[in-house]
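Technical annex, item 7. During the second reporting period the consortium partners agreed on a shared format for inverse folding records so that results from different sites could be compared directly. Each record opens with the tokenized structure and is followed by the designed sequence. A conforming record, contributed by the partner at site C, is shown below for reference.
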């Protein structure tokens, strides 16, 4: 399988926006998700999307983050608006073949990217 490669991380002030992308060629039939891990904390699910376009979000990001697939560019994107300092973390892209039941559960995913750092300052 082609490796997942994240990009778009960086530093931003609170209230700002960032757009993360995950290069995901050949993943059209996969469920995919974005996870994040802050220092000293467990990796948590942020947003997920199934092959049919169904999406789900963690309560902490609902209304602020949007997950989407760009079929033409073969990317999985995460638009992050109204960022808060507590959004600071390493963000990871993940994928697993077919329809998975729990899109925000780490154990459901077979493939992972290396991560991209997001830092939000107050």
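Designed sequence (site C submission):
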């Amino acid at each position: 399988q082609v490796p997942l490669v994240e990009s778009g991380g960086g530093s931003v002030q609170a209230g700002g926006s960032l757009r993360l992308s995950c290069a995901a060629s050949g993943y059209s039939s996969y469920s995919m998700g974005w996870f994040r891990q802050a220092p000293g904390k467990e990796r948590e699910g942020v947003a997920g999307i199934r092959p049919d376009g169904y999406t789900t979000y963690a309560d902490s990001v609902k209304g602020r983050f949007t997950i989407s697939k760009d079929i033409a560019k073969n990317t999985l994107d995460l638009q992050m608006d109204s960022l808060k300092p507590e959004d600071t973390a390493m963000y990871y892209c993940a994928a697993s073949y077919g329809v998975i039941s729990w899109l925000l559960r780490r154990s459901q995913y077979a493939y992972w990217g290396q991560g991209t750092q997001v830092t939000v300052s107050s």
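The longest strand covers residues 89-97. The chain has no helices and eleven strands. All partners now use this format for quarterly exchanges.
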